[in-house]
Amino acid sequence: MMHGFDDDLVLPWRREDRPFEGVLAYLQRRLEEAETEEQRTKLECYQSDRTCPACHGARLRPESRAVTVGGKTIVEVMAMPARDALAFFAKLPPPAGLKDVLREIVKRLGFLNDVGLDYLTLDRASSSLSGGEMQRIRLATQIGSGLTGVLYVLDEPTIGLHPRDNERLIATLKGIKDRGNTVVIVEHDAEMMRAADWIVDLGPGAGRTGGNVVYQGDYAGLLQAKTLTADYLQGRRSIARVAKDPNRKPLVKPKDFLTITGCCEHNLKNVTLKIPVGAFTVVTGVSGSGKSTLVDETLKREMLRRFYHAKAKPGKFKKLTGAEFFDKIVEIDQSPIGRTPRSNPATYVGFFSDVRDLFAQTEGAKARGYGPGRFSFNVKGGRCETCGGDGVTKLEMSFLPDAYVTCEQCGGRRFNRETLEVKYAGKSIADVLDMTVAEACEFFAKVPRLAKKLRTLSDVGLGYLGLGQSATTLSGGEAQRIKLATELSRRSTGKTLYLLDEPTTGLHFDDVAKLMKLLLELRDQGNTVVVIEHNVDVMTCADWIVDLGPGGGDAGGRIVCAGTPSDVAACPESLTGRFLK
């Protein structure tokens, strides 16, 4: 993705053998979301954020802003990070009759610190928080309730956490359990597993090959089990071995760099970031250290502005050099590949257009005069008109989210009866969409054009995914890997800058190993890969690490150490280095 648009929009004619295929694939995907996008665009053109000229963003009247406690106004206190606010109120003499109030403030600020959110300012807009941060704020609220006998269910609470912050979160969760509560966590983090009293391991594979409990018991028992999870915990398999593949050429000492100097947005303190060209770089650091501000808000926005005239204003910096080493910028994020039930992996990677061509060449299609458009669920002709090719119909609920039910006319198969009568190797077009990626790999093995695109989806660990699975059911990690597979299926120029933010979110060890293999393949082709990441296994695979910190918020915003993984591990000032050892 580049500046919010599909890459096919920027370079739609990259297929030399079929020059307009990229355009058609883009138009088809855009058609699926046209109505939603049009409505969103109409609204967005009337919206903008501007600071109030009267209160300058403080939200309060002058009289309210004039009141001070301990020499500070409420506006000044709200602008403090949680850690500074805790120190302020902890030292504050209790006003008459407000001792209990002050104690409660200190206690609740302490909860925010305990869950690793000490760097957040108290007036931070909730819309700017990540999913992991929001989850931990809710967790801090629950800690303050003091309840017992409660069942707490958390989904990936370690998202966005540095290993240092992870230790604090684990201690907090143990405290909740020790008060008589039950804590259930969906998680892939090894440290969280070691701290657990009971582990349930599902598998043996994913999708249709999963759904079974392959182990349940304590951590010691898991290490003795014969499961994929146990293989990685025991070291029988290793993510780091991917980078040590003897068939992979070792990276020579980098001589060219993409350099951005004088970065001072938010908490960045005149930072100079150097990214080795043609290398795999991991930018890491504790939560709130300035990683996203440096890479996403400053470097990425400036590169997109230069290459694609993007309008998003980059963070403050002085100078950028080295852009001449690149001909394309690709951001592979976890945003959805589509927002309607009609969007799916097959249409996104451009696989479905080839399938329609294949069906149009069958004897059954030729006898009926059907062209490729007959097998599209986006246009009238071959699709089921009752559901408009969605396979489902929407039920609008007055006070609840819209619900979708299977179309009674086509039974969810999206096409009308005449279209479904046309078969390729005994399968209808709906049968193909019902296949998993792994099943389709086998079915289309002798069709090179299709086999290549399917193989890339399988290589990123999505063999279990349904080709016609609705984009609205995909996780952020799955959407990101679909985008990565799409990039891998294109011809590489060897001069692309790839930018990824937390790509291991929601991934099992085995999925991370597959992801690392693919990212290193992109690097081997001469491309530059930059990843914001906290996963220690990913760091060990990196050619270069940039460690920000040393703390979060005002205590961060500096580059503590930059170099090879061994350089960072040897740096005594680096918290990341301690975990790399």
Structure write-up:
This protein is an alpha/beta fold and 581 residues long. It is 39% helix and 14% strand. The protein has three domains: 128 residues, Rossmann fold (3-Layer(aba) Sandwich); 201 residues, Rossmann fold, CATH 3.40.50.300; 134 residues, Up-down Bundle (ABC transporter ATPase like fold). Helix 19 runs antiparallel to helix 20.
Which labels suit this protein?
581 residues, alpha/beta, Rossmann fold, ABC transporter ATPase like fold, six-stranded mixed sheet, three-stranded antiparallel sheet, 17 strands, 39% helix, globular, disordered N terminus
Low-confidence stretches: 1-22
What would you give as the CATH superfamily of the largest domain? P-loop containing nucleotide triphosphate hydrolases
Structural class: alpha/beta
Count of discrete alpha- or pi-helical segments spanning 4 or more residues = 25
Strand content: 5-15%
The global form is globular
The tally of domains stands at 3
Q: Examine the secondary-structure arrangement and name the CATH architecture of the largest domain.
A: 3-Layer(aba) Sandwich
